Amino acid sequence: MAKKRGNAEVADLLRVGPGFRFDDVDPDATPGYDGDKNDGEKDLAAGLEKLSELQERLFAEAAVGEAREAVLLVLQAMDSAGKGGIVRHVVGGVDPQGVELAAFKAPTKEELAHDFLWRIEKRLPQSGFIGVFDRSHYEDVLIGRVRELAPAEEIERRYGAIVDFEERAAASGIRIVKVMLHISRDEQKQRLMERLERPDKHWKYNPGDVDERLLWDDYMAAYETVFERTSTDAAPWYVVPANRKWYARLAVQELLLGALQGIDPQWPGADYDIEVEKKRLSAS
Amino acid sequence: MAKKRGNAEVADLLRVGPGFRFDDVDPDATPGYDGDKNDGEKDLAAGLEKLSELQERLFAEAAVGEAREAVLLVLQAMDSAGKGGIVRHVVGGVDPQGVELAAFKAPTKEELAHDFLWRIEKRLPQSGFIGVFDRSHYEDVLIGRVRELAPAEEIERRYGAIVDFEERAAASGIRIVKVMLHISRDEQKQRLMERLERPDKHWKYNPGDVDERLLWDDYMAAYETVFERTSTDAAPWYVVPANRKWYARLAVQELLLGALQGIDPQWPGADYDIEVEKKRLSAS
Predict the structure, then answer these.
(1) What is the DSSP code (8-state) at residue B6?
(2) In sequence order, what are the residues at sequence separation of 6 or more whose Cβ sits closer than 8 angstroms to the Cβ of residue A140?
(3) How many CB atoms within 10 Å of residue B20?
(4) pLDDT given for residue A67 in this prediction
(5) B23 CB near a chain A CB, below 8 Å?
(6) Is the pLDDT of residue B12 over 90?
(7) Mean of pLDDT values over B198-222
């Protein structure tokens, strides 16, 4: 733990600022962390205990009290950048009863017949929960823009719609943490190659992954526009260098810890008379 | 692992047979397991690796193949028997992306306006998933019967409706494992007392828990009727002695392993030309 700086500092280092460019980010870097992989894995395990207690307090406050807070982690990335590993190793460590996970695929016909935020709104986390979006409404301004799935003016409209939507969600008590896991093109090539080489990974490979990869620069440009238009105080974007999986997991854990510490949930007091209940229970 | 018998044997020992009576079950026992708590915790960790791989294979088969199988774990118990611990320590160890958890509370007004199985059907697991019901449609013939929340003839109708419903779910590919965690009255008293004594547990205590506790014998009779009427080959009931939490977790893990081994999911083969894709990827 001594090797790790406080999470406020890590959040500051990773938060997207004005004029953000990917050229300024090294996907191999470990901003705010001086340790190596071994340290990182130990710190991840230690952080998990803190995260678990905070999650349980958040859940308890909403279950029996008036608390309305929730946390929403939005995960975006190019293929193979490690979203699944974050879900498994960061979020997967807390009590699944307090987690709501939503994986957004290509929209269905029914979903396409509604505004792009219709399916998203339905999956916002309840009070007391940690929600995780594995892909999100941002696909509608990422692949939506790169593949021209909607007219330019519709894409343009969506940035504002997203900002309004997220502000409303934040005002209702949801702390929103938006993370883009950033790997290099070379790293992606290696990871996709591994999927082709290992029979237990074949199912994770899709020929379409290479088609998207060929549009890498277009995607990076689309992400830069997303950051410029939608990184707000209510719902900031963080770009997490993700060539080192252990660092990305640690960094996202820090961001979640920061969000929960910001809420600072407390164990709710008893809304019954403890001594009376002890007597009733003893007599039963 | 040497101390543990095979899971087919554990399943046989725990499976509810004709004429089942709680009087014949010792909630302190550890059927099919000769080890102690330490052994049990080690075996749980070892079993988790097997469970994780089987879960991923199940998920993979449904994600890219034609496989339609899923697993559904139904958890029922008196308060404090450890349903939450099963979710946390048994199910919580596998990839959350392959788990669908549904906690059924007292039905809402909308739910009450439909047949009792309406809300249940909607939460059946998709192909490839492990679904978990934390309480279930069985509440409608347990508290429903004990508290007379519905007329006797309606309760009577429900047993048959449940059997039909579960047979249909099983025919669609869902392996159903129904577990009743069985603790003694004394054990429950201690666990509820702990909730009253620890400020971080106060939120888990509800004065209504003692009211239900006073109806213990009625609940046990209602469970015995449930077993008699709804334990079928398609959806068998298991009564798991649960005074020792470590044993209950190990036993439920064994039951889940058995269900998954019964499905025997395999890594799906590539539905693309691996060599062609390697070349495309290399050139990209």
Answers:
(1) P
(2) A116, A149, A150, A155, A158
(3) 17
(4) 85
(5) no
(6) yes
(7) 97
pLDDT at B67: 85
Q: Does A189 touch chain B (CB under 8 A)?
A: yes
Q: Given a cut of 80, is residue B178 above it in pLDDT? A: yes
Residue of chain A minimizing CA distance to B270: A202
**Domains of chain B from N-terminus onward:** 7-283 (3.40.50.300)
ipTM passes above 0.90 = yes
Interface with B, mutate which of A196, A204, A267, A272 (most B CBs under 10 A):
A196
Q: What is the mean pLDDT of chain B?
A: 95
Search chain A and give the residue with CA nearest B133: A97
Nearest to A63 among B193, B203, B281 (CB): B203
**Secondary structure E strands in chain B:** 70-77, 99-103, 130-134, 174-182, 237-241
Contact B116, B86 (CB under 8 A): no
Which residues of chain A neighbour B204 with C-beta distances below 8 Å? 60
Whether B66 contacts chain A with CB within 8 A: no
- Which pLDDT score, from 0 to 100, does residue A2 have? 43
Q: Give the C-alpha separation, B212 to B216, whole Å.
A: 7
The answer, yes or no, to whether residue B240 has pLDDT greater than 90, is yes
Question: A22, A220 in Cβ contact below 8 A?
Answer: yes
Chain B residues whose CB is inside 8 A of the A96 CB are: 87-88, 91-92, 96, 99, 101
Q: H/E/C letters for each residue in chain A?
A: CCCECCHHHHHHHHECCCCCCHHHCCCCCCCCECCCHHHHHHHHHHHHHHHHHHHHHHHHHHHHCCCCCEEEEEEEECCCCCHHHHHHHCHHHCCHHHEEEEECCCCCHHHHCCCCCHHHHCCCCCCCCEEEEECCHHHHHCHHHHCCCCCHHHHHHHHHHHHHHHHHHHHCCEEEEEEEEECCHHHHHHHHHHHHHCCCCHHHCCHHHHHHHCCHHHHHHHHHHHHHHHCCCCCCEEEEECCCHHHHHHHHHHHHHHHHHHHCCCCCCCCCCHHHHHHHHHHC
Closest CA to B93 of B253, B241, B227: B253
Closest partner CB to A213 (pick from B205, B213, B284): B284
- For range A266-277, the mean pLDDT: 95
The two structure tokens encoding residue A14? 């990773």
CA B179 to chain centre: 5
For strand B174-182 and strand B237-241, is the pairing parallel, antiparallel, or unpaired? Answer: parallel
| pLDDT, position A3 | 58
Distance CA A260, CA A8 (A): 12
Q: Across the interface, do A205 and B87 touch by the CB < 8 Å criterion?
A: no
What is the token pair recorded at B136? 């279930």
Q: Average pLDDT of A86-113?
A: 95
